[in-house]
Amino acid sequence: MVVSFFFRLRQLFCQTTTRRRFFRIGQYAGLFSLCFLLAVGCRNGGSAIDDTVGAGDRVSVGTTLSARTLDPADSYEIFPGILLYNMGDRLYTYSPGTTDLVPQLATDLPRISDDGLTYTISLRDDVTLHDGTPFTAEVMAFSIERFMENGGRPASLLTGKVDTVSVTDGDLVITLKQPFAAFPSLLTFSGITPVSPEAYEVGAGSFNPDSFIGSGPYKLASFSSDVIKLDVNEDYWGVKPDNGGIDIQVFTSAVNLYNTFTSGGLDVAYQTLDPDQISTLEADAASENWQVIEAGSTVVNYLSLNQKIAPFDDLNVRKAVAAMMDRQLISDRAFKGQAEPLYSLIPKSFPVYDPVFEEAYGDGNFEEAKAYLAEAGITEANPLEFEIWYPSASTPRSVAANTIKQSVEQALPGLVNVTVSTAESATLWENVENGAYNSVLSNWYPDYFDPENFVQPFLTCDEGSSETLCTVGSPQANGSFYYSDKANQLVADQNAEQDPTKRDAIFADLQQLMIDDVPYIPLWQTKDYVFTTADVSDVAIEPNQQFLLWQIDKSVATAAAE
To answer: Is the pLDDT of residue 13 over 50?
Structure first.
């Protein structure tokens, strides 16, 4: 997991290849606002869209996200994950609009052995891949083995957990290395999808980045850096799309995406618009006959505190900074209300979410912060000095960091001095791994919808000790260097626990441990937005953050045209 986690951290905020997407950047909020005003005044400056895009009942979608590859064994970014989710099927999925896990290519939930290691899965027999290949347990086993053995970016999601994949009496049999209660949820990951053995091969580094042959409701019609087209799979085994296809225009900037949508060149605008643009679209929606779809997200944003170096090697200093954070102020200034305060690393989407940081430290609680600082020997003669680093790719993150600096220094003048610093993403994450910074603003996009994916990547260390802290593992990669035998054991316990009630109790213990040790400070949870014209319907962001393109209906517009 650590190699995968570090790689993804280093890709944070990269415009074209990140699973950690965020809003577009300029370094200073004032300059951003000026640029935005100029952009609004030049609405027709967006990129011209292909005349065939969105014709008839085809739906045109605009985005600034791009796809490095469509190979499910190598795709580990947000946008190709969305494409694969719509072009492929998985063993399990979620009932639309819910977090209810249901079979898709499987016929039922897995049969799990008493030791929690063996999953036996019966499969549908009426599925055909895009090239006519029948879907079988052998095809699924081939696809899973390829996912692990080809060594792509997401491979560690399975290689660290799966021991063997085999076929017995037509059933798929997966044996794990250790019990992992979240395994059915992991099998909903977009890349764990069947591909044709006729078109793909197992072999390290063997990938097909520009094509996809799977089993889903759409077939890939064309793929380029600026236009991607999906055609309806007329032979799909399940419910066919409610539209005639999807035409996706990839824009190089939020300004171009905004301009093209507002000038009528798109049916749907999704990811990634800046906060000011979102506010303007919301304000103009009624008069312009636009639809605004707002959804919660599972993206958590947090401050990672490096326990290997001063000042955050002192627990009282970490607790003091936890008390200083004014989350509502950050949300209002940096995101114009398009984010909400977060008080645990497990997001509000899960029933086990507990606002432990609010209960333990409050919000902007500077009197409590002073008490912790006094315990740490911090005085005006010996003030607390620390830096907040962030990747140089997000205006909101710049505003958030500077908001923290201003509020803290105003409330605790002479006692705390905060420096805000930025670096290019790859350089920054290399320095974070090496322990160069005492704190960094980060965010986390989960791989699958389970609270486990919000504790293991933060609290579990592969190698280390209480004396050395984490030397190999996710906490080392994300810059906290947190090490706790108790955390390691609790994460292992919840992995082995099949009883949901008992497992929830372990998550409660893990959240308590976060406020006891304060390796991270959760700050905000972003919201997700989609903007559409009035002639499309059934547009929604799923609770697991997937965008179901096949549900979008443009039949109203077609009927009106006729």
So the answer is: no
